[in-house]
């Protein structure tokens, strides 16, 4: 893997544009970029052929969770069919494997212990040891993998934050030692909860390891906006410039812009709900397509959009699909929303390249606030 920073904002800003090159992928991915979240390998409601309708090469980055496959086909079976690329039928996509729980399933008890991290599975919580995890990584053959992390919510004690960092560093060393597959790229995980000291310590220690990049984990678990901004900036200040940084759970457009301003290159777990997004214009419009007002509306979801959904279907048709509970409605909305979020990242990159990211961010947030104020009124 090769990562190159091509542009950094002037005036002391940390927002940066870059290019990520994966050996064998044949194409570079411009950053900041979005990793499409998947469920057992594919984005929700999007099959392989529908993925091809999304903007390229932006849609080639997929985030997969290795623990989703604990109860799937045997590891030897996955390995025999050329890993996840072969099993999913996506030979040209870049698969980034990182294990993490959703916000909803984060345990309130100490399910994670010194032996391994705890994750939610269809049959309940499972303790995953570094050896188990690396067996999954070895058979899945992702392009990039992140080590195990002990993620904790913001309200834990300083002592628990320290334990989280110690465990995560220990598991990182164990995972690297167990990585016997050739050509893999590892991302070291940075945790520390809401503790500024522990975040800095973890970032500094992970930087000393032989890793290809960094996964900044543990956000979205109750920290305030002010805390997150401070923690993000303090963390990236401790990281080397020449390696990519990935952050979890910054899903709202404002949160993405906050991450980009702190020097983040890759974003995962961006959740797009079943509204209609128009992020390019800065309003992220969400409308209730089930409402009767759209039954006779023959216009597109967004006039300026050239996604498959907007080019082929009307609001009236989507209103019909939603009200008869047809799954095609979710598919068409997913195509539209994913298309718009990828274009949003394209706009961010263009703003950085011309040195206008700060202006782009200010105008985007201003339009969003104006839109929401109008909705409330």
From TrEMBL:
Binds 1 zinc ion per subunit. The keyword DNA repair does not apply. InterPro entries: QTRTD1, Queuine_tRNA-ribosyltrfase, TGT-like_sf, tRNA_ribo_trans-like. It holds the Pfam family TGT. GO terms for cellular component: cytoplasm. Zn(2+) binds at residues 305, 307, 310, 336. Keywords: Cytoplasm, Metal-binding, tRNA processing, Zinc. HAMAP family: QTRT2. Heterodimer of a catalytic subunit and an accessory subunit. This is Queuine tRNA-ribosyltransferase accessory subunit 2. It comes from Zea mays (Maize). The gene is LOC100192965.
């Amino acid at each position: 893997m090769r990562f190159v920073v091509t542009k950094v904002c002037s005036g002391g800003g940390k927002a940066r544009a870059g290019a990520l090159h994966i050996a064998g992928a044949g194409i570079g991915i411009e950053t900041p970029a979005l990793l499409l979240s998947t469920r057992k390998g594919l984005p929700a409601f999007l099959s392989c052929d529908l993925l091809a309708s999304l903007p390229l090469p932006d849609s080639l980055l997929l985030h997969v969770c290795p623990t989703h496959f604990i109860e799937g086909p045997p590891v030897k079976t996955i390995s025999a069919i050329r890993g996840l690329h072969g099993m999913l039928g996506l030979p040209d996509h870049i698969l980034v494997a990182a294990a993490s729980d959703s916000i909803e399933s984060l345990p309130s008890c100490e399910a994670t212990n010194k032996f391994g991290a705890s994750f939610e599975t269809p049959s309940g919580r499972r303790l995953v040891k570094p050896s188990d995890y690396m067996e999954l990584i070895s058979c899945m053959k992702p392009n990039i993998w992140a080590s195990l992390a002990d993620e904790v919510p913001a309200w834990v004690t300083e002592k628990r934050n320290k334990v989280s960092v110690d465990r995560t560093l220990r598991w990182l060393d164990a995972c690297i030692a167990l990585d016997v597959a050739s050509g893999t790229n590892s991302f070291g995980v940075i945790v520390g909860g809401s503790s500024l000291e522990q975040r800095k310590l973890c970032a500094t220690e992970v930087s000393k390891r032989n890793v290809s990049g960094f996964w900044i984990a543990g956000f979205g678990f109750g920290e305030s906006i002010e805390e997150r901004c401070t923690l993000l900036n303090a963390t990236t200040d401790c990281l080397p410039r020449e390696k990519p940084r990935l952050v979890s759970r910054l899903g709202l457009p404002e949160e993405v812009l906050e991450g980009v301003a702190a020097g983040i290159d890759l974003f995962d777990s961006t959740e797009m709900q079943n509204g209609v997004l128009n992020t390019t214009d800065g309003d992220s419009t969400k409308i209730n397509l089930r409402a009767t007002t759209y039954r006779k509306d023959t216009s597109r979801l967004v006039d300026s959009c050239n996604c498959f959904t907007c080019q082929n279907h009307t609001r009236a048709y989507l209103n019909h699909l939603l009200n008869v509970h047809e799954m095609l409605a979710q598919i068409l909305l997913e195509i539209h929303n994913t298309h718009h979020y990828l274009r949003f990242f394209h706009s961010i990159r263009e703003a950085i390249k011309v040195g206008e990211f700060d202006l782009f961010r200010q105008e985007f947030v201003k339009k969003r606030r104006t839109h929401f104020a109008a909705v409330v009124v």
